[in-house]
Amino acid sequence: MPIKSKAQRRKFAQLLIEGKITPETYEEWNRAAGKAELPERLHPKAKSKTKRKVKSKRAHTPRTTVARKRSRSARKPG
Questions:
Q1: 64 contacts 29 by C-beta, under 8 angstroms
Q2: Distances (CA, A) of 28 to 9, 13, 32, 62, 73
Q3: Are 29 and 2 in contact (CB under 8 A)?
Q4: Please, are residues 30 and 68 in contact by the beta-carbon 8 Å criterion?
Q5: How confident is the model over 40-51, as pLDDT tens digits?
Q6: Would 74 be classed as within a structural domain?
Q7: Which parts of the chain fold into alpha helices (H)?
Q8: Is the pTM here over 0.70, yes or no?
Q9: Do residues 3 and 13 touch, judged by C-beta distance below 8 A?
Q10: What's the CA gap between 30 and 57, in Å, rounded?
Q11: Can you tell me the distance from the alpha carbon of 11 to that of 20, in angstroms, rounded to the nearest whole number?
Q12: Number of domains making up the chain
């Protein structure tokens, strides 16, 4: 079975260095891949969708304390 991606090639090289596979196995798989330009990953990870910000129906403008005091004093007692 040939190596199908650059990530697989790196993984098998790591396994070779750790002694988990033989050099013959690595060469066999690597040779089967040939000189073809391999993709970085065989199945790329799906990109996560970004959450959309919900716009409020009314624009929020912060009021200052002076404006609040004025608005309270301008009201008529009811």
A1: no
A2: 12, 12, 6, 69, 87
A3: yes
A4: no
A5: 888 877 877 777
A6: no
A7: 6-18, 23-33, 65-74
A8: no
A9: no
A10: 60
A11: 11
A12: 1
Residues 37, 9: Cα–Cα separation, whole Å: 12
Q: Is residue 30 part of a domain?
A: yes
| Structural domain includes residue 59 | no
Q: Rounded to whole angstroms, what are the CA distances from 39 to 25, 26, 74?
A: 21, 19, 70
Cβ pair 40, 6 in contact under 8 A: yes
60 located within any domain: no
Q: What gap in Å lies between CA 11 and CA 23, rounded to an integer?
A: 14
pLDDT-derived band at 72, boundaries 50, 70, 90? low
Q: Could you tell me the residue range of the domain that residue 31 belongs to?
A: 1-42
